[in-house]
Request: fold
Amino acid sequence: MPVKLEIDGIFWSAGVFPLLRGISLTVERGEIMVIGGRSGCGKSILLEICAGLKRPERGRIVWDDIDIATMSRNELLTARQRIGYVFQQYALIANYSIFENIALPLRSRGDLAEKEIDVRVHTVMEEVALFNVEKHFPESLSNGQLRAAALARALVTDPEMLFLDEPVSGLDPQTASGIRAVLHARQRRRERTIVTICHDLYLWASRPHRVAVLEGGKLVEPEENHAFRQMVEARR
Reply:
């Protein structure tokens, strides 16, 4: 079952500068939430807080009615097995092959045979159109291939909730469209909860999404996405 995410009164400061100022938001099970905003406005920090990678200064992050701050370390590690995360800078391990990078979340579970790991890794590589690079190392891949590999690693455990940090930024239109198509297909088949951030909301304009903009430390949801539609019309 997909995860329901609740953000309740989140604060975060960079030194004395407040980046997040009392943000609250609910992302329902199986929903795709797109959060836009300018570079440096705090989008990545908010995403890491939502995923339990950082603790807010104040406020709560709730997964399926459980405040993750109340979880023990082992409980949080177990809960994180239900999520996938794509970092903006990929976070692939340089001296691991692409196959080993993608297989890493499966190996960390310790309950799968090598044959099953091999099948799952090659299946997800095919899903993201990543071919004939399983033995290569990250330094030899293009930007688009690195993003596809990072996405494959996030998807390989079939997570119930996905957090994506600029997953199509800097990509050519065809590659970006392919990655979005993979995410939508996965969400339709398994009704996964997806939270993605980007600085250009137009990149996600081809399909209806729930949209919010982070500005001045606050999260603003355009009423019925009116501002989002205006932006799309202006770009046509």
Notes: The helical segments are 43-50, 73-80, 98-109, 114-127, 143-155, 173-190, 226-235. The mean pLDDT is 87. The longest strand covers residues 17-27. The domain at 30-54+81-235 is CATH 3.40.50.300 (Rossmann fold).
